[in-house]
Amino acid sequence: MKKLEKEDYTEHLKSINKRLILFYELVLQGNKELVEDLALKIRILYMRKSGTEPLLKTIQYLFNFRFEVWVRETPEEELKRKGLEHLIESMSFSYYNEIMFWLESGNNKVEIIEAFNRPESLKIGEFSYSAKELIELVADKLGGAHIDPKLNERALIPQSPKIQFEGFNMYEYFILKTTKQTIEINKLILEYILENKQSEYIEIN
After folding, report:
1. Closest to 115 in 3D by CA, of 178, 171, 52
2. Which residues 6+ apart lie within 8 Å of 60 measured at CB?
3. Which of 61, 91, 121, 126 is deepest in the core (most CB within 10 A)?
């Protein structure tokens, strides 16, 4: 079996990004069935699956850099980071969907896979969902890889037609926002790899 080289991983990233751009535009034009394909591509980039590390993690390792993005911490997370846990019980908290702000603003910068794995990215009523969970549900259970007939209420709520943004249910909307941000992130990473172009999000190890 051929050992993959840096160039192979770079070409893989370029190929995935081309598909993300194409599928993203097609979904906006009404081809919502491609949302599952977006979820599958996003999973390759951000999530460990069947013993294979996330592609973006491998790329960072091979090219010796960290890609750090802004996150909007909950008040609870910020207090813990600052060593002020004793104040937590006196406060109430809400959740932040921070992926759309990764390249804009936040109160802490973290490595991109760590940012993706943050525990809460979406809250609907009593239910909270991580980005990882939302992508898994679409990629694995809602038609990306197969359809799971035993989905519970929690898994079904984000695809309710009663909860829509810009004509999309919450699964579709979340994946579109994540895709849009990911396309820009891939662009910055490829510019660094291929052109040595720096950005504020690249930290050289």
Report:
1. 178
2. 66, 67, 111, 112
3. 121
How many Å apart are CA 58 and CA 86, to the nearest integer? 38
Spell out the residues 6+ positions from residue 32 whose beta carbon is closer than 8 angstroms to its own: 168, 172
Segment holding 165, helix H or strand E: strand 164-165
User: pTM, whole model, 2 decimals?
Assistant: 0.82
Inter-residue contact 99 to 181 (CB < 8 Å): yes
Cα separation of 52 and 58, whole Å? 9
Q: What pLDDT, in 10s, does the model give residues 85-126?
A: 655 454 444 445 568 888 987 788 999 999 998 876 777 767
Q: Which two tokens stand for residue 48?
A: 């460990």
CA 140 to chain centre: 16
What CA–CA distance (Å, rounded) separates 160 from 21? 26
Cα–Cα distance measured from residue 30 to residue 187, given in angstroms and rounded to the nearest whole number:
25
67-82, pLDDT tens digit by residue? 999 987 665 666 666 6
Instruction: Supply 108's token pair.
Output: 């802490």
On whether the CB atoms of residues 171 and 137 are closer than 8 A, the answer is: yes
What does the block give as tokens for 117? 């794995």
Adjacent-strand bridge partners of 69: 110
The token pair that represents 176 in the structure block: 């579109």
Can you tell me which residue has the tokens 């694995």?
A: 140
Could you give the angle at which helices 6-28 and 35-46 cross, rounded to 10 degrees? 150
